[in-house]
Amino acid sequence: MSITQRIDNITFIPENYRSPTPPCPKSVKIELTGRCNFNCSFCARSQRLRKTEDMNKDFYKRIVKEMREAGIEELGLFYLGESFLCDWLEEAIHYAKHEVGIPYVFLTTNGSLATPERVESCIRAGLDSLKFSFNYADLEQFKQVARVKPKLWLKTRNNVVDARLVRDKVKAETGQHCGLYASYIRYDGEQGKRILEEISWVEKAMDEVYALPLYTQAALVSDSNRKNGWNATAGNRGRADNLRDPLPCWAVFTEGHISWDGGLSACCFDHNKDYTMADLTQTPFMQAWHSDKFQQLRQAHLRHDVSGTPCENCVVG
User: Is the peptide bond before 248 cis (omega within 30 degrees of 0)?
Assistant: First the structure.
């Protein structure tokens, strides 16, 4: 199954999931660390709205085992932070894949720390999919948007190319396959044309490349996007070439999101913890998935009226 098929499967809400108490999600993203070495203007993380530390390893192992027993089939070892900052990333992959038996373990990275050595160890640990978020057309845009040292631009570009060499090497030696993918933000106007030129070489190194719309990140970065002359998409509508309706939002029904400190969130962009539905350090996963707070939010989405909820500003842009 291609990565775009997997994305579209998650962003589509089946009828049996359109309920205040949907079945266990097939996919969950879990944040090994809330830290990130980028300071992107399109990401609300740059506003430092929450504490960012690393997940407790014992909690990780407990909740991953519990979720697999509940029925999850896909585990993303990232959420809002950059997981290559976590020094036990490879251990987390091996545990999920080989000790717990999750069929599909995936990871998204900004690429700057995804060195050939780390990528190889992650693939050998059992990683099924590695995706690079490649959102910059050139060095000038990288400096303007990522707002970090320019030297990371070249590192990121080199790591994208080297990942293919490493993946093919491991596959030849072991038969193990890890999909390599990249996504990019479809900016407006001239900015959009510039990034397509850069993406043309990325496509040669990846198995698949796809576009995402520019999000408002739960309405937290609307003003900064407008200052850059960018029009953002309200809500989280999935891939740019297969946009879903903003209401009901798929993230509330079909995928779990767990922050480094154990919060179960209803949102892909919960930078300020407004969308935290339960504390998984105190509450079993399925009980949290069906918590009263989560049920009330889902009912609002099913009514297509999220006024008075944390989602109110997000869906209107």
Answer: yes
Which residues, listed in sequence order, are joined to residue 184 by a DSSP beta bridge? 211
Inter-residue contact 240 to 192 (CB < 8 Å): no
Residue 157 to residue 207: CA distance in whole angstroms: 16
What pLDDT digit, counting tens, does each position of 59-99 carry?
999 999 999 999 999 999 999 999 999 999 999 999 999 99
Strand partners, 180: 130
Residues 6+ apart with CB under 8 A from 38: 82, 110, 112, 146, 147, 148, 152
The upper half-sphere exposure of residue 81, i.e. CA atoms within 13 Å in the direction of its Cβ, equals 23
What is the C-alpha to C-alpha distance for residues 225 and 163, in angstroms, rounded to an integer? Answer: 31
Angle at 102 between CA 97 and CA 104, to 5 degrees: 85
Side chain identity at residue 181, one-letter code: Y
| Residue type for position 209 | V
